[in-house]
Amino acid sequence: MKFGRSWLPAHIFAWLYMVLLVVPLYYLLVSAFKTNDQIFGSPFSLPTSLSTTNFTESFSSAHLGPAVLNSMLVTVLALVLTLALAIPAAFAIARTEGRVGALVERVFSLGFLIPTFAALFPTFLLAAATGLFHTRAFMVLFLPATAMPLSVVILVQFMRTIPREMEEAARMDGASTFAVLRHVYTPMCMPGIATILLLNFLTFWNEYLYSLVIIGPDPEQRTVQVALPTLKSLTGTDYGILTAGTVLTLVPVWAVYTVLQKRMQQALVSGAVKM
Amino acid sequence: MSGCSTLASADSDPGTLLVHTQLGTTAPGSATYTAVVKAFEKENPGIRVKNLVNGDDLPQVYETSRLARKEPDVVMVNLYDKTLAWTDVGATVDVKGYLDDWGLRDRVLPAALTEWTDGKGRIRAFPYFATNWPVAYNTHLLDRAGVGSVPTTGDQLIGAARKLRAKGIAPVTVGGNDWTGQKLLAQIIQTFLTPEEARQVYTSGDFSGSRGARAGIDYFVDLRDAGVFADKAQGLTSDTMTTQYNTEAAAIQSAMSSALAKVPAKAAGHTEIGGWPLAPGAAHEKPTILRSYTLIGFWVSPNGTKKISTVEKFLRFMYRPDVVSRFITESGRDMALVTDTVSKDFPLVAEAQQLGDRVGQALLPDLYVPPTATQPLITATSTAFTRGTSAASVRSALESAYRTA
Q: Quick one: B310 and B164 in the same domain?
């Protein structure tokens, strides 16, 4: 394929964008193999050694193993709950034509207006009152609540594109409402489901403030985002160990992103053919 | 759902002592702390110590735990910023009675007891870590620049800075954008203040009303505009400061013991420990350093009082001379307790411990600055280290920090 001169600016911007993304990642990776003096003295130079000491030190001293498992537990359960709530809610709203349906949809949209910090104290009080303070269970219940507005709004838009004739055909074959949702709407909304899975995974995995306050610092319960900052110390941080720990915690994110991104693209293509 | 074992809290075991600490990962002293806790558990088979580790966010996490009445039994943290209010609001208890009942008072340095005692005579926590905060001079770099001896006056310091700059060496490196800069600024401002005057100034925030504080700020501005501090000091942090000194890019730093312990052997070999140079007419006779006995203490929480016999065993163990010595010899920490042990593997820390009366002592303002003014003061510090900022503007920035608090 040949490109004319008119493509040149696009190429330049694309490469610049790539550099903007790659430079911080490169800095993070090379720092993970360096000492503090090397990081601050020559930040962008290649490491002189590929020793994995920083990685093993960060993994053991911050107890990153249990922390990663805790993050996975909280994230996966919260994602399952989000889907279990958002799909039926979106299905109902998408199929409703009356004012009540429109009102409920707007109520979900109002969730966008609540700032994260504003909800912290009431959420803390709720956790204390329910006896779920210092538990991961509260976060499993709380995270889906924060994700519902975006998830429902995205899924409603996807479900509205599904022709009514599909549902009518299923009904004629004797399908119940649940069967319509299970066998017609859900498969055809896979692009939307993959999208909210990906977005919510990143949000849940990276959540810090609420996990810090609600779950707390117990090494047996804390998530990876709470464990990682324990490598930082006011009286002297070893940034080699800190960046090595950061790289380790990014691996699951990278793996899930890669898998889901592929699934999302596949779902988008298959959805286009079906429709 | 709280009964679900996988997801539920596990912090209510009566045989477990919950310790909320900043030690346990990579903070200086963590390895020794972890080892002595294991030794304690071995000596006391019925007790398990569970460490809850947080970094700089420990006070915030502890306070929310306390609000929910699920706070840990013992907290290991310094007396600074938020923690200054803990005893007053009942977040932790007065330990004066325990200290006497358990016979541990004699183990504590008198200066440490004074610093940990509040205005109502309550002892906020069991003192543990202290720190010296001297000035480190790289004599090799000073020699290279033609500076024959460590400067002891402001004029000598300005002269040394000019010669160092001519050789491409940064003179005094400092984290002008964080707490290290705030402490050095406070130390220089106190050049013309007696301890009592300094206490008054830092309690009230009235830097314009005190003649000594005004003169101290003028002295700071003179030094700054004469190029004494490293370039762009207003944007530097403690990490860049220690790196510049450790890599011998800078010749002088004001560093606490934990930073001195990390100076590489090469730079440590030609480092001389001293105080900050004085101006003519100063209130001190000798160059000054900072000393603090409030770096880490053992605070007892209301929940801790329910397990007070376990807390007692733990603290008696941590106060034992052999345990205290381990922190000095293995981690190079300064202790707020009586001990004869001197660090051998951390020569600069030992040198700072032995400065004695060869230096004067400035007041560490942490105990007198209102907690709400602590962070605004650090922002004002960055303004102060910005070249060209007048003395009046520096005073105004410092006073604004108290007003916005």
A: no
